[in-house]
Write a structure and sequence with these properties.
Helix content is 44%, strand content 13%. By secondary structure, the protein is α/β, with parallel strands linked by helices. Strand 2 and strand 3 form a beta hairpin. Helix 6 runs parallel beside helix 8. 30% of the residues are buried. The C terminus is likely disordered.
Length: 227
């Protein structure tokens, strides 16, 4: 709650300091009702030093996932080196990103694609924090868009009324399994953005219809006794 309040304060500060009027619409939620599912692959996992090397963004309109007009970009890092732990995750090597475009070219196109739409994702704070650093350096503001974390939607429908001691699993695989989603190759920006979009569509539909996700009551009791 505190973090969200601080984001609202930072958003207002950035809006007042905005020097380029072309980005004003980023601060006004899009009237279309669409959201944008986003995922980034990076040189490593340090929010202060590492850089984005691939980004995918997919618009979602109601229950339609608009993959045919998705935004995808391979990005050549400016100074950060590819870290072994990140390469093991996404399988992108330094030689693979040499053909990418600089973030200075990609970022304006990506921000234009997102506009004022809320952004959706799994571990969305990480992706937005990486983009924030780029946008602040280039244009003087952080992404003001409302964030929707799919694991929070999932928690609301499965665990909100769970008894104390319930084992809670908010992993990407657990959400996909409970929603019966197809298994796509993981740690690919487009696949992860698509999976997050599919999660969002199903979870928001379930919430609108007043449905919840069943828990394993046996596991609940066992975990409660163990604690």
């Amino acid at each position: 709650m505190l973090e969200r309040m601080l984001r609202r304060i930072r958003r207002e500060i950035d809006r007042r300091r905005l020097s380029d009027p072309q980005w004003q619409r980023m601060f006004e939620e899009d009237a279309s009702g669409e959201v944008v599912s986003i995922d980034c692959e990076t040189t490593g996992f340090d929010l202060r030093k590492d850089e984005i090397i691939y980004v995918s963004a997919i618009r979602v309109a109601g229950n339609r996932i608009l993959t045919s007009s998705a935004f995808n970009a391979l990005i050549r890092p400016e100074s950060a080196t590819m870290r072994a732990d990140a390469i093991r995750v996404h399988q992108l090597r330094a030689v693979d990103v040499e053909a990418g475009r600089p973030m200075s070219e990609v970022l304006p196109e990506l921000l234009d694609f997102i506009g004022g739409r809320p952004v959706v994702g799994y571990w969305i704070d990480y992706d937005v924090s990486m983009l924030d650093r780029c946008a602040r350096r280039a244009f003087g503001f952080r992404l003001p868009n409302r964030r929707i974390e799919v694991s929070e939607l999932y928690y609301e429908l499965k665990y909100r009324k769970a008894p104390q001691g319930t084992r809670i699993d908010l992993s990407f695989n657990a959400i996909a399994r409970d929603l019966g989603l197809r298994e796509l190759p993981a740690h690919d920006a487009f696949n992860d953005a698509l999976s997050a979009a599919e999660m969002y569509v199903q979870l928001t539909d379930m919430k609108a219809r007043g449905r919840t996700i069943p828990r394993d009551r046996g596991a609940d009791v066992a975990t409660a006794i163990a604690h």
